[in-house]
């Protein structure tokens, strides 16, 4: 009997990941419950089980008294001396208890105590396991729709993909596999309550960590993410190794890496741009694929004025303002975009010769070889000489 019990405990420990000590404790508590149901009290009952052999002992302690008032807790001096003449009043007599004496109801209650403890421990183990997976991406299987929410099986537990965390143009079928981002794990009496998301920006970050080894190893860092779920995402990346191109690493050979992520996001477009500590350069990159003539960025007010060629204005703004909106979220700057014609009419854009001296001294601007104006950060870099500027202009004209 004890060998079978030990084997059963080992099997439970492996299957449900519940420690053997916890199971032994549950059995001890169940025996106490059975004693309480059998005797009416269990204050003087002592239970011990050996975790290795699963041998257990049940003992009842009674106090020796002259006159017995409670036969469960006390024994008369006469009866005690019949057991051993050395007993006196106030001594404790220990009686062994045979569990086979318990009735059917007491045995059933003991069984229920064991099962309840196993269920509680199983819920704790599952909660602990998924709590450690919070803020990670996992693969689940779509089970069913619960109203407008979706129940997703994650293996040992079910998660809920609420309507607010679903991408509008996505639809799922039962048994379909899908990757989700674990938002929150809560402990409830019925088990862990797991909330997952398909719209969270961190889903994109985690997918890149899975797909791109350089991101996973920390060589390439994703500095910022701006996402409109189901439509478009912009990410800004930088490299901590000068020999590694951050954008190229994320795109992969023939776009293999980024395409795998796009497929997982059901066709959501992803723009990967290079991060820059220079706000003007960062804003220019963020507005990609539109070309930029000039950027005037105010770091204190977190605002920027951008001038683009007339034919690039609609591309810079994007459909329903999406490109500009994502660029603003990505950089953290409020961006005002104007075409070259609009900027000249409003006086926000001047010829290079008109503001050369003023901006070199104050805000630090320069004109590149293609005639584009960028912010030249006040970081101790020397102002390009007139000869260098003239040479750059000559190269651009060629």
Structure, described:
This protein has 4 domains: 2-129, N Utilization Substance Protein A, Chain:P, domain 4 (2-Layer Sandwich), CATH 3.30.1480.10; 133-197, Nucleic acid-binding proteins (OB fold (Dihydrolipoamide Acetyltransferase, E2P)); 201-275, 2-Layer Sandwich (GMP Synthetase, Chain A, domain 3); 278-398, GMP Synthetase, Chain A, domain 3. The longest helix has 28 residues, at 104-131. It contains 14 helices and 17 strands. Mean pLDDT is 82; it is low at 351-398. It has a 5-stranded mixed β-barrel. Strands 1, 2, 3 and 4 form a 4-stranded mixed beta sheet that branches. A 3-stranded mixed beta sheet has the order 10-11-12, with helices on both faces. It has helices at 2-16, 20-39, 77-83, 104-131, 201-211, 213-217, 246-251, 256-264, 279-286, 313-317, 322-331, 340-346, 352-361, 386-397, and strands spanning 45-49, 56-65, 74-76, 92-96, 137-146, 149-153, 158-161, 177-188, 191-197, 220-228, 232-239, 269-274, 294-298, 303-308, 334-339, 365-367, 373-375.
């Amino acid at each position: 009997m004890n060998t079978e019990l030990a084997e059963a405990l080992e099997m439970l420990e492996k299957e449900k990941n519940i420690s053997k000590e916890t199971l032994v404790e549950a059995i001890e508590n169940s025996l106490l419950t059975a004693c309480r149901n059998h005797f009416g009290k269990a204050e003087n009952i002592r239970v011990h089980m050996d975790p290795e052999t699963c041998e257990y002992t049940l003992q009842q302690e009674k106090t020796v008294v002259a006159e017995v008032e409670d036969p469960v807790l006390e024994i008369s001096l006469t009866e005690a001396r019949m057991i051993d003449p050395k007993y006196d009043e106030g001594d404790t007599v220990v009686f062994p208890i045979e569990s086979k004496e318990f009735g059917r109801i007491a045995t059933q209650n003991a069984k229920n105590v064991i099962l309840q403890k196993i269920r509680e421990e199983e819920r704790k183990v599952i909660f602990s396991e998924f709590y450690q997976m919070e803020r990670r991406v996992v693969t689940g299987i779509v089970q069913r729709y619960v109203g407008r929410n979706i129940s997703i099986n994650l293996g040992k537990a079910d998660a809920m993909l609420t309507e607010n965390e679903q991408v509008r143009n996505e639809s799922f079928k039962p048994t379909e596999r899908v990757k989700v981002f674990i938002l929150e794990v809560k402990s409830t009496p019925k088990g862990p309550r797991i909330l997952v998301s398909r719209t969270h920006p961190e889903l994109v970050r985690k997918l890149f960590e899975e797909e791109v080894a350089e991101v996973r190893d920390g060589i390439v860092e994703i500095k910022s993410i701006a996402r409109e779920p189901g439509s478009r995402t912009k990410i800004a990346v930088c490299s901590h190794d000068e020999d590694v191109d951050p954008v190229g690493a994320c795109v992969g050979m023939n776009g293999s890496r980024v395409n795998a992520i796009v497929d997982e996001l059901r066709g959501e477009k992803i723009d990967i741009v290079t991060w820059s500590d220079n706000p003007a350069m960062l804003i220019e990159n963020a507005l990609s694929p539109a070309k930029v003539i000039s950027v005037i960025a105010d770091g204190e007010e977190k605002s920027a004025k951008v001038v683009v060629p007339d034919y690039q204005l609609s591309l810079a703004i994007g459909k329903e303002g999406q490109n500009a909106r994502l660029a603003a979220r990505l950089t953290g700057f409020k961006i005002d975009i104007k075409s070259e014609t609009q900027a000249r009419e409003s006086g926000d854009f001047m010829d290079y010769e008109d503001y050369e001296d003023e901006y070199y001294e104050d805000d630090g601007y320069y004109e590149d070889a293609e005639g584009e104006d960028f912010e030249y950060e006040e970081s101790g870099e020397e102002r390009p000489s007139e000869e260098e500027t003239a040479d750059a202009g000559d190269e651009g004209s060629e």
